[in-house]
Amino acid sequence: MATAPPPPIPRQHRAGAGEADLLADAQAGDALAAHRLGRLYAQRGDRAAARHWWERAAGAGNVDSAFNLGMWHEKHGTLDEAISWYELAAGTGDAEAAVNLATLLLEQKGDAPGARRWYETAATAGSRRAARRLALLCEDAGELGKARDWHRRAALDGDLASAHDLGFLGYAAGEEGEARHWWEFAARGGHAEAAHHLGLLMHALRDPQSAEVLYRLAAQHDHPGSASQLGGIALARRDLRTARAWFERAARAGRVDDQRMAGFVCVELEDSAAASHWFGRAAASGDAESAYNFGLLLIAEHADLNGGEHWFRQAAAAGHYRAALELGTLLSVTGKPAEAEQWLSAPPKPCWDRSAEPELAARAELAVAASGRRGGSTLTVPELTEILGTWDVLTRRLREPLDPVTWLTEKSGMHASAVEHLSSVRATLIRPGTAPWPTPTEIERVLATARDLRKRLGLS
What we know:
With 460 residues, the protein is an all-alpha fold. Helices cover 73% and strands 0% of the residues. The protein folds into 3 domains: 19-192, Tetratricopeptide repeat domain (Serine Threonine Protein Phosphatase 5, Tetratricopeptide repeat, Alpha Horseshoe), CATH 1.25.40; 286-351, Alpha Horseshoe (Serine Threonine Protein Phosphatase 5, Tetratricopeptide repeat); 358-456, no CATH class. This is Sel1 repeat family protein. It comes from Acrocarpospora macrocephala.
């Protein structure tokens, strides 16, 4: 749920009279004078006097004083009184009071229906903030048509976050033209996430040139994901120094995958100190591949067998196949044959380490971002990439009119329903909108099918 902005400063009117005149007029029952006098005391820090005169003014029908009292109680008084004063102001058609009232009802009282009613009142009166909050409430209620209507109203009024959300709603519905339109709209306004996701969409549509332009636009706003993508593009061109600069930029944002990639590029550039730094940081965060490579570097560059053993052990315990073999070999030459035999005789199963095509990796990242919005499924890019990559490797040589599901079932001996499920999930990731996003449980089952298929067909 998006956090509400801080309460606005108390409203004021330009005073045309001195304090003595305001006091006399206020005491005589002038509501506007009482309001101005309350504002004067608020500026001086006399909260009690400000409250007194705003209550006098609000009681005489001054809406701005009712609003200010809502704000006063929100900061210094009680929640119920804040709600009461905001409700009084909102009831006269004050959109800003309606937004603040709705926010308190939602975030402090948990009253979503009441909040929605007041957000709708404010949004109908032209409040951009209310339109966005209302759109998010509609999303959470599964009312996607209404959510898109309110997001559109907010976006056209300049809310780039709603434009970004419209892109995702379009993408999840299979409307890639709509997604492209709104992400471009937000990106032109300086929304880095929108530029990044539009870059991914262009990559998925096999337009790497446009994708690179968009990644650069997002990277100008320090988007680490786009820096990572630009590192991968430079690496594919064998421009190692540029790749290093981009990967390190992303790595400094704490992205473990990019810390590992920075380490690999530094190895190729023969900068072992920098490689050790990045592998060490990623290994300390629990990355098994980095722990394995850090162990190799410690032994190769510093003859540090104890350090190498430590990091091999960390990686092997996390299921890293090659680390287990290296650990077993190291233990056998350092006088620990019994433990060495344990690792060498029963190492973990090798993991899938093939790189997927860029368009498949882009689809995986978009699916994770889209499905994870508003507290959705917690899918992971590596798992989805493995699913898409497995299907691609197993079927890329097939020629029509062969049906991939039938062919894989016959070749592997697996049950057709398992292969069909894999095919269905893959189709959802490649062509969003054809079915709901897969759940983590589905992904777990489909991954098991993909790995079993590779084993049966000799690709693991």
